[in-house]
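ABC transporter permease structure dump, as promised
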Amino acid sequence: MTAEKSGTTGRRSGAETRADGTGAKNPPDDAAGAGPGSGSPDERASGADSSGEDDTAGTVTSAGKAKRTRKARRTGAAKAAGTASTADKTSTADKAGAGTDKAEAGAEAGTEAEARDRADAAKKDGDAAEKSDAAKQDGTGDDEPADPWSAFGPAPEPVLGRPRRAVRAVGRFLVHEWTLAVVAALALAAAMTWPTLRYPRHTLPQDYWDPSLQAWQMAWSGHILRTNPAQLWHSNTFYPENWSFAFSDTLLGYAPAGLIGVGPEHAVLRYNIMFVLAHALAAFGAYALARQLGAGRIGGAVAGASFAYAPWLLAQAGHLHIISNGGIPLALAMLARGHGWSLRYGYRPRRRHAGWAFAGWLVAAWQLSLGFGIGLPFAYMLAGVVLVSVVLWFVRRRKVKRPFGRRLFLADVLGGLVFAAVGAALAVPYFKVAELHPNAERTIGDIGLYSPPASGFFTAPAESRVWGGLHEGARAVLPWHPEMTLLPGFVLYALAAGGLFFSVWRVRHRIFLLAGVLVTMALAMGTRFFGGRFTYVPLFDYLPGWSGLRTPGRMMLWTTLLLGLLAAGAVTAFCMRVRELAAERVPPWPGPWLRLATLLPLALVLVEGLNATPQPVVPRQPAALRTVDGPMLVLPSSQNLDQPVMLWSTDRFQPMVNGGSGFTPRSQARIREATVSFPDYASVDYLRQIGVKNVVVLRDELEGTPWEGMLDRPVDALGVAREQVGEAVVFRL
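structure tokens r here:
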């Protein structure tokens, strides 16, 4: 019984071994305790019988092991084949792990040698599956082996040659935001100032008086820089006066343009080109400032268009030194960029750039060189900003680590010195003129004559295509409507008002902008705002140079800029909201139409800026002005008549008594009075004493002037030669 039981146990053990497919290295517990020399004699006898049964069972177990080994091999091969067939469905790591599991199973089922053989076979099966997977991934199939270098990463990008790099750089430049902004500003300026460029050699915008003077200024500065720069301030006009180039704003910053071309025709062409470019720079500068402060592209475009094409500026079309204001917002944008500051995001030290700050000071100095009419308030504004910045830096220097970098500090110091030096150099001639000509200084009475009432802020000039005709009655009650029609645009008013409540600017910034609008409006009213006792008059009395500004209404330039920034904040917030709505729409087809609606404020601002500016033909230059030497006098002579004469002198720049500016020198007034009776002994003698050699009389201009009938007077006893040169009569003294 014991033997049977033992055999049964052995068979069961073998059966169990076959059932789990692993095999047992250790014998069962009941056989382990029946060794020779253990237990009683009876137990040893039983143990002998049992050992026989165990041997039989062991033989059966060995046969089962061999059978299971063969089965394990077949099973491993089948699994390896199955693994290879499904290599595209499993990862390489899973296949390697499966091969390892097979090796361990084989090691437990047989001897160590067999286990090693089975492990090698499984490893080979795993490698084959991995190679098959790599071949499928590489797309080489079973016929072509995989690239052995693909395991090291993708191939490097090809190195571009210099021509292709240049083409790529040019392409990036052409599609850059600022390139597109410049092109758009130029195209818009040509369209909004049309028909200025229709006949640019023969017509001038608005009239041919002040534009003729300014065309001569650019021509003179270019001519004298090319010939004798030391005589810059002693021009060929207002003979025999010195410092005559400082009798009005000089547009000296345009001197490089004056180096190109000679004569009246080129001077007119130059003026028209600079007129269009001034509008483009104004739009671009205001756009750059709004973008730097945190406005979006469309918001910045609204700020630029409203600043450059405000209706009130149409009345200033004959004053290039007022139209040339784009350097103001551009310099402010550069300075803000250099100092890492914006209205929307505050102070960001990592965005500081000393180069931009220094460039901003240079642009500010260039703007100042165009004239003190708008440059002087700009200079005082910059001085105020510097003072406030110094105070804030002193207060916050312990709270913010390195709030002001060393390089930026040096850039500001050097740039500020350049700006101050340019201002001082330009101020010297004007102080000299004020000393030599006390009648050139303005009085409070003069300021009162040009101070507009509050209704002027809602009245458009006659040059406005949209509002000019509708506001004719309102203009009729203004004492001097060319300087009192100050409408910046009703659309701009509406957008700025909306920007007080719906904007990307913080509430405190909106309040500051509104305060700036109100303060500049009060200054623009001059003595009309409570007599100017708390606004314009203190500036007139105590700020050096302020007494030379006779037209307070030009402070509207700052009002327009601040209103444009308020409007830019509102339009930017509106565009952001439109993008959110377009993204939420399902289906998204209304999105483009919603985005197109964001251009409506810009379109309305531009429509209000459409012009009806006249383009009169410039009087043709008399032939005598091309041949007669100076010093000379052209009759008849007056403020308006002398300005075209200045333009005609750009062929040879002969010294001449004629000249037009913001005031009339006493010497010129005396000459005009003395020559009313010309030609007679007294007038001829006086002209000879001051050095005048020739007198040119324009026959077609005499009618209705004090010199009418002078050509009928005899000259035989005066020692004067009379000669007909074209349409003019020349008296050679």
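Residues 41-85 form the longest helix (45 residues).
lmk if u need the other ones
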